């Protein structure tokens, strides 16, 4: 998951009704200013981004990748999987984006955040790990191939045995 830097303006926000719906826009490049309530999706750059749906104003970037987020578009609405957990923001928002709906989840505890972070790291390591290497034969097991020098070849062609 993507972890955003903490920004002080997240702190001390008055409580407000939480947004429950979002729209989406397919774009090529992210606009300088993201509108509230919109999930921006760049297929070209395999990235989605939005302003944190809690209203804190922070930009949340969710890379689309097998080890990150998967985007579903059913022709009308979009969904992101897994949930968006902005652990490093002061708001620590955690929600699911499903079919244009924001399903707010419980805030994670510090232990849960650490577990999620190490799971993310493990997923990435496993994804990018080189494929298992087939066992190689050791030098002793390799079939012995007699090395023949050029001189030996020439002597052989000339019928000289030695
Ligand atoms: Zn927020």
Walk me through what this model shows.
- The chain is an alpha+beta fold.
- It has one domain.
- It is 17% helix and 25% strand.
- The protein is built from two helices and eight strands, in the order ββββββββαα.
- The strands form two sheets. Strands 1-2-3-4 form a four-stranded mixed β-sheet, with no helix packed on it. Strands 5-6-7-8 form a four-stranded antiparallel β-sheet, with no helix packed on it.
- A hairpin with a 7-residue loop joins β3 and β4.
- The N and C termini lie far apart (70 Å).
- The N terminus is likely disordered.
- Bound molecules: zinc ion.
- The site of zinc ion has 9 residues, from loops.
- Zinc ion binds next to loops.
Could you write a compact summary of the structure shown?
This protein is an alpha+beta fold and 162 residues long. The chain has 2 helices and 8 strands; from the N terminus they run E-E-E-E-E-E-E-E-H-H. The protein has one domain (8-128).
The kinds of small molecule bound in this structure are: zinc ion
Principal-axes shape call: elongated
Structural category:
alpha+beta
Question: How many structural domains does the protein architecture include?
Answer: 1
Q: Beta-sheet strand percentage?
A: 15-25%
Low-confidence stretches: 1-13
Mean pLDDT: 81
Our count of helices gives 2
Q: What is the alpha-carbon Rg in Å?
A: 28 Å
Percent helix: 10-25%
Head-to-tail CA distance between termini: 70 Å
The biggest sheet, with number of strands, parallel, antiparallel or mixed sense and barrel status, is: 4 strands, mixed
The main sheet orders its strands as 1-2-3-4
SS elements, strand count: 8
Order of helices and strands: EEEEEEEEHH
